[in-house]
């Protein structure tokens, strides 16, 4: 998170943990209507501490700690909390009922805890936390111009829980930019100045504005905040210098071999387990139209090397996907089920073992589409500096990706998500993407 707003997330996290623990104590009290003994509380706290760690992870997956999810939230906080707490209680039930190693029988207790923890965490986030002053919406002045600055301003103005409210926008005007900023600060008295330092006029004006730092005004880079809010890189920033600074392989010397080991371990485990499903879907695909079971499209892999992928066939036939820009096929009923559950991608686990694919990475495209996009979109081939993946950041957050056809503008936007992944890729980010992919599959929120 942008440093100016980072304490909000930390305090939210600490408060959640506190109310998880306090809810445990209060639930014990309500169950017996008596103060719980210390040894009884500790006997429950030890096994529940494992669950608290998992529950915090569920909160994170639900977006309850992400500024982009909070700012761009589509669901009421109470609804999100209820869903996540129900998931957490199911996890607790499985934990205690199938691993009864701790000698406690929490069948009724879990119901009490669900109600108590939901109410307390909701009160914490809706009533108590806002009164700390950390969630108060601060006045912000925006300095910059262009589509991305306008998009950021609109998001901050429309968001319910935005950390800043835009009170004015200064359009850079050459040598007069510094004076315009001074006038706007005097007029609006902002707490933050969100400035596009990539704009030369803004960068040149900043040395004349140092004195405002001592007055408590914080300066925030608009493009960094844009990345945080939208989860993608502003394409206006992409140039040779950006690529050299953010996509260097030398900065990931440890990450790459560790990721490869994790790919092998997970693909081998899941791949072997998935073999149980193969006979079922082979029969279903054959009974549907007696066509081929597998589809083997050619895709562009790392370093623009062509790779042959293997998938369960989910469409009415197999066209030359590497040579055409628009598929003429349609998804079959069985294929629709396989796509929703991602079962059609199970054979790709063997591509992962072979080293053609990774579990996490940019979505691989056909050679024909890559050739077109490389002509139309600057720096498009940068995404091929890493292995493509079965799932990825763009697959999670880009809602407008083209299906089985060419769409330059939608792909231009998707590239901004891919570049965000390339810039921030790490084992932690891969784990987050994997967990969110599981959530997406379970919720069947799309393919």
Shape assignment: flat
Estimated share of beta-strand residues: 5-15%
Number of strands: 10
Q: Indicate the mean pLDDT.
A: 82
Distance between the termini: 29 Å
H/E element sequence:
HHHHHEHEHEHHEHHHHEEEEHHEHEHHH
Q: What is the makeup of the main sheet?
A: 4 strands, parallel
* Structural domain count: 3
User: Low-confidence parts lasting 5 or more residues at pLDDT below 50?
Assistant: 319-323
Helix content: 55-70%
Please give a quick description of this structure:
The chain is an alpha/beta fold and 447 residues long.
Entry keywords:
single chain, 447 residues, alpha/beta, Rossmann fold, 3 domains, 4-stranded parallel sheet, two-stranded antiparallel sheet, 8% strand, flat
Q: Mind explaining what this structure looks like?
A:
This protein has 447 residues and is α/β, with parallel strands linked by helices. Helix content is 56%, strand content 8%. The protein contains 19 helices and 10 strands. It has helices spanning 6-32, 38-61, 67-71, 77-98, 107-131, 147-158, 177-188, 200-205, 211-214, 222-230, 240-246, 255-274, 278-289, 333-341, 348-354, 367-376, 393-397, 408-424, 427-443; strands spanning 138-143, 164-170, 192-195, 218-221, 294-295, 298-300, 306-308, 311-312, 358-360, 389-391. The strands form 4 sheets. Strands 2-1-3-4 form a 4-stranded parallel sheet, with helices on both faces. Strands 5-8 form a two-stranded antiparallel sheet. The chain has a two-stranded antiparallel ribbon with strand order 6-7. Helix 1 crosses helix 2, helix 1 (6-32) runs antiparallel to helix 5 and helix 12 packs antiparallel against helix 15. The longest helix has 27 residues, at 6-32.
């Amino acid at each position: 998170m942008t440093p100016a707003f980072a304490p909000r997330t930390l305090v939210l996290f600490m408060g959640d943990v506190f109310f998880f623990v306090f809810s445990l104590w209060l639930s014990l009290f309500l169950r017996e209507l008596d103060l719980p003994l210390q040894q009884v509380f500790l006997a429950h706290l030890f096994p529940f501490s494992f669950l608290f760690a998992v529950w915090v992870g569920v909160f994170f997956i639900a977006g309850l700690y992400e500024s982009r999810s909070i700012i761009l939230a589509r669901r009421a906080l109470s609804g999100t909390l209820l869903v996540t707490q129900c998931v957490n209680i199911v996890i607790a039930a499985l934990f205690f009922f199938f691993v009864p190693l701790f000698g406690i029988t929490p069948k009724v207790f879990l119901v009490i805890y669900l109600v108590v923890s939901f109410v307390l965490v909701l009160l914490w986030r809706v009533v108590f936390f806002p009164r700390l002053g950390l969630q108060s919406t601060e006045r912000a002045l925006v300095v910059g111009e262009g589509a991305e600055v306008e998009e950021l301003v609109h998001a901050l103005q429309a968001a319910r829980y935005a950390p800043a409210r835009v009170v004015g926008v200064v359009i850079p005007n050459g040598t007069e930019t510094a004076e315009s900023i001074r006038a706007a600060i005097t007029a609006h008295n902002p707490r933050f100045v969100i400035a596009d330092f990539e704009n030369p006029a803004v960068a040149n004006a900043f040395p004349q504005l140092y004195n405002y730092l001592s007055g408590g005004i914080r300066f925030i880079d608009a493009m960094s905040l844009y990345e945080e809010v939208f989860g993608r890189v502003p394409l206006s920033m992409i140039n040779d210098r950006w690529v050299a600074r953010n996509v260097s392989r030398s900065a990931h010397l440890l990450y790459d071999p560790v990721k490869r080991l994790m790919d092998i371990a997970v693909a081998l485990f899941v791949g072997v387990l998935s073999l149980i499903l193969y006979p079922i879907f082979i029969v279903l695909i054959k009974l549907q139209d007696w066509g081929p079971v597998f589809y083997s499209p050619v895709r562009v892999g790392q370093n623009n090397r062509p790779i042959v992928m293997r998938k369960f066939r989910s469409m009415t036939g197999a066209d030359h996907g590497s040579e055409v820009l628009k598929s003429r096929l349609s998804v079959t009923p069985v294929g629709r089920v396989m796509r929703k559950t991602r079962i059609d991608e199970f054979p790709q686990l063997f591509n992962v073992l072979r080293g053609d694919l990774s579990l996490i990475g940019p979505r691989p495209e056909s050679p024909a589409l890559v050739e077109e996009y490389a002509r139309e979109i600057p720096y498009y081939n940068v995404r091929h500096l890493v292995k493509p993946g079965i799932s990825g950041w763009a697959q999670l957050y880009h809602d407008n990706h083209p299906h089985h056809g060419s769409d330059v503008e939608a792909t231009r936007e998707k590239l901004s998500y891919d570049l965000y992944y390339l810039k921030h890729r790490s084992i932690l980010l891969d784990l987050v993407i994997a967990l969110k992919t599981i959530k997406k599959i379970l919720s069947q929120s799309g393919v």
